[in-house]
Predict the structure.
Amino acid sequence: MKATLAKKMWIADQGDGTYRNPILYTDYSDPDVIRVGQDYYMVASSFSNVPAVPLLHSRDLVNWKVVNYVIDRLPFARYDAPRHGCGAWAPAIRYHEREYYVFVPFPDEGIAVYTARDPLGSWSGPQFVIRNAGWIDPCPFWDEDGTLYLVNAFAKSRIGFKSALYLCPLRDEGKGLTAVTDEGGFVYDGHRTQPTIEGPKLYKRNGYYYIFAPAGGVKTGWQTVLRSRNIMGPYEERIVLHQGLTAVNGPHQGAWVDTPQGEDWFLHFQDVGSAGRIIHLQPMRWVEDWPVIGADPDGDGCGEPVPGWKKPGADKDYPADAPEDSDFFRGTRLGLQWQWNANYQATWYSLAEGGLTLYSIPGEGRHIYDLPNLLLQKWPAPAFLVTARLRLDGLKEGDCCGMVSLGGCCDSLLVSRRNRELRLLRRKGMVKQGEEIQENLGAWPDRVIYLRMRVENAEKVSWEVSADQVGYQSLGEPTPALAGAWVGVKVGLAAFHEGTGETGFLRADYFCFEPLV
C-alpha cells in the first residue's frame, strides 16, 4: 500500500463555504476551546491514555489538527498500569498575560494546572491547586480586578454527591497557586431543575457573569446557562440548547468562543456510543444578554443543533483537513494520533530500524484490555477499513502480536509463536466479565501478514487476513462495537509475551485507514 492512498476518513469542510456536523467524528470528550489572535486551541479528556490531554489547533474552528499533548506522563505511579475511567478528565484551557494554562482534574487525586509560554512546546506541571478526590471539571477565570477564580463540579462516584457547582478564589502565596476554599462556596444547586449539572465554563460579558454547564446527563441532557451580576451569585438559569427534533442527543459539555470578526460559536460533544464523544460546532447569538445556540425555529430562546452551517469568518480560506489517522512510520517519533494504554516506557518501541518496532512485554495471565503497552488511536469515522502490514521474523517463542479493538468488548487478531510455529489466533471477550475466549485459526506459513479490521455503521467489528494484500479471507463472526469506560472504541497494535523465555518484537510497516465503500 502506498502512502498516497491514505485518505482522511471524515472531512467536515464542504469546500463551498459551509461545514457539516460533527466537525470531528472522533472521540475528543469534554472539549474546551480558546482563541488567541487568529489561532484556536482545543483540549479534551484522555483518561488513562498517554500522552494525555490532546491539544488541537485550528484557524477556522472547522479544520483541526492534533499539535501537541499537555501531559507526557500521568503524575502518579498507579498509571503505569491501565486505570480505565480514571486519569485526566475534562480539562479547561485559558490564556492570560502571555501564558497558557490548562487545568486538569484527576478525580481520585485532585486538580492540577499545567502552563506553557508556547503551547506547541513542553508544558510545565503538574501543580496541584486542590488535592481532594471528587473535585472535577475545573475552569479558571480572571476577573477585571485581577482576582483568579476557579469553578468546578463534583463526581458522585468519588465524593458521594453531584449536581452542584462550587466557586472559590485562587491565590499565589509564593509556593504556587492554592484554592482558597474557606473563601469559596457553592454557587448553584441543580438538584431541583438542573440535575447532574457539571462541566462549568465561566465567562463575563456586559457586566454579567455566565456559567455555561450541561445538565440532565451525558446521553439525554441539555445545555444550561447561569447568569448573575455577582460572581458568587445568586444565578438565574436558562436552558439554551437541547436535542429538540434533531438526532443529536445530549448535547453535552463544551465551550463558547468568538472570532476576530465578532462572531460567536459554541462547540460541544455528542455521545454516540461506540465511536465515543464526537464534536459539533453551533452558531451562537445573543438576545437580551442570553445566548441562543444553534437554530431556534420557534423563537423561544432554546436552540437545537444544526446539521451544518456557513463556516465561521476567518482571515482566509483554509484547506479541508482533519487529525492524522494512517501512519507509515517514516519519522523518528510516533505520530500524534497514537496513545499508549498507560504510562509508557521508551523500551517498548523503536522507529530507528525502518518502520515501527514494538517489543513484547510480559503478558501472561492478563486480559489484553489491561496490557499497558497497547499502542492505540481513536476511530476517525463511523465506518472504515484499517490495514496493518506486519513482519513476524522477530517473534520469539511465547510472543503474541497483532491488531486489537479495545472497548467494552475487546477483540483481537493475533499471531502467536508456539513450538517453533506461527499460529493465527482470535481473542475476544466482554471486559466486565473479565474473561477472554481464544480461537485457534490454524498455522500461518509466512513471515509477513496483512491484518484488516472492518467497522460498519459504528456497530460491529470484523476481521480479515491476507498473505499478499490481494485476496483477503474473512475470519469468524463480527463482534459488537461497545464503548469502554467513558471512551469510544480504539484500534491499535499489541505485542506481549506469554512465557518465561526471551522476548521478541513485531515490526509494522504501516497502519492505514480506508473509507468503507
Observations:
- DSSP finds one helix and 38 strands in the chain.
- The chain has a mean pLDDT of 95.
